[in-house]
Every structure is written in C-alpha cells, then in structure tokens.
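Sequence only, no structure available. Ideas?
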Amino acid sequence: MRRNKETPRDFYAGEIIWNAVYAEAPSEPKDAMDLAYLTGQRPADVLKAKATDINQGFLMVGQGKTQKRLRIRLHNGAEISDLSACLDALLERKAMAGIKSSSLITNQAGLRMSYAMLRNRWDEARDKAATKAAIEGDTELSVAIRQFQFRDIRSKAASEIDDIGHASRLLGHSTQEMTTKVYRRIGEIVQPTK
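Reply:
I predicted one. Tokens follow.
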C-alpha cells in the first residue's frame, strides 16, 4: 500500500507579519501566541495548559496528538527564560483581574478559552491587520497576513531555533527528520564566499 504524498505547508510568518497581527490582537490571543511560540506546542496543547502544569521550575506538557510528555525548563541556572517571564506576567494579570481558573489561556470572564473562541479572536485580529496593511497601500503584506494561520506559530518556533536537535525535542518529535521536513520553514544560516 502506498502512502499519499502530502506537500507540507510552506508559510513562514516573519517579524513584520507577526507584529502586524500581534498589534491588532486583544490580550487573549496575544497570550496564546506568546505561549505557542515560546513552547512550540500545537494550538490544542496551548489551550489546555494550566497553572498547575508549572512544577519545580518546569512547564509540564502532555501532547494530545502524540501523548508525548515534555518538561520545558523555565530557568537556566539563575537566568529566567522568556517563557518563565511570560507565565509570570500572565498569572499576575489573571490574579489582578480576579480570575480563579487554573487554565493559563482564558477569556475576560475567566473561562478556559476554547479553540472556537481563539479562532474567532485570531481571525478578527488577522483581518484587522490585513485591512490596515491594505489601507496603507501594501497589498502584498495584506495578502501575506491573510495567509497566516495560528498553527504556523509552531513552525515559526521550530524555524527560529538554531539547533535542530533542540527544536526537534521541543516539538516532541522522535526524529529530527520530521522537524526538518515539515516545520523548518526558513533556510539554514550560511556564510558568503567572501
């Protein structure tokens, strides 16, 4: 039996596209974007993350698709990671707003954000960013922004980590081949001849 050869998605959200959508997003999708980028996890795994998953200097992740378990380090010696700072700020904002839910990504009412809620807020932010770019006369940017999907954040994270071994482990892949073939969407850094 032959397998269907599927061409992997090849969209990469560069800094300009990321910043355009991020600027238009309300706090809930921004939190989800930050957590997805810093952890390299799938949207469903980002949405199910809880404060109780933070344990002894790690963010514990149980991937839904593969059932793989990861411990993402929050501190590197005395130095805190960007993920740790993001989680601290998120938990502080939730506490100041009086949100008691243990879910990390919630709506303003404190309810765990569902995929449909995230999708609606994501689509609104992306549409606002694309419309703004079109009004400013940059139709190419507007088209690129409209192609940006939330799931592309996982690939952005994998692409921006220099060490392929680290990227592969963060994404929960058993081989580096999967990370390279499907998730690395920018070229390798090389030096010119002179």
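The two ends are 50 Å apart (CA to CA).
Hope that gets you unstuck.
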